[in-house]
Amino acid sequence: MSREQSFNIIRTVVSMGVAIAVAFIIILLVSDQPVESIRIFLLAPLSSKRYLGNIVETAVPLIFSGLSMALMFRASLFNLGGEGIFFISGITGSILAIWLKMPPVIFPAVCIAVGAVTGMVIMLVPGVLKAKYGANEMVTSLMMNNILLGVGLYLLNNMMRDPKVASLVSYKYRKNALLANLVPGTRIHVGFLIALACAVLVYIFMFKSKWGYEIRMTGNNARFASYSGINVTRVIIIVHVVAGAVAGAGGLIECIGMHKRFEWTALPGYGFDGAMIAMLAGNHPIGVIGAAFFVSYLRIGADLVNRSSDIPTEMIAILQSIIILLISAERFLHKYRQNWIEKEAKA
Question: Could you say which residues form the signal peptide (predicted)?
Answer without folding.
Answer: none
